Amino acid sequence: MFMDVTSPGGPGGEGPAFACHGCRKVFAHKEAVERIEFDSSDEPKLRELNGVYHPDCAKPILSMKRAYDMLKRSFG
Q: Residue 1: in which H helix or E strand, if any?
């Protein structure tokens, strides 16, 4: 199927295509990515944000993650 993000490779033989967790656009070959991982002990709703993002798409979530991590350290 056209633009199937689960297809096992592209015309250049690169690996499987995958999409940004934020904007859902497929990453270009060797495009910069940002991986966000909340701990398994964190709130389930926060763990739903785990994934690979474009750097610009990840900025607001990374800001929130830093604040959450600081609060978690402060209040246990």
A: none
Q: What is the pLDDT of residues 22-46, one digit of tens each?
A: 999 999 988 999 999 999 888 899 9
Q: Which residue has the tokens 């690979």?
A: 52
**CA 71 to each of CA 4, 29, 38, 42: distance values in angstroms, whole numbers, following the listed order:** 40, 37, 14, 12
Distance in angstroms (rounded) separating the CA atoms of residues 25 and 33: 12
Q: Name the residue ranges covered by the structural domains of the chain.
A: 34-75
In angstroms, the first-to-last Cα distance of the chain is: 49
Predicted TM-score (pTM) of the model is: 0.72
- 8-state DSSP, 19: B
What is the DSSP code string of 48-69? TT-EEE-HHHHHHHHHHHHHHH
Q: Report whether 52 contacts 18 (CB < 8 A).
A: yes
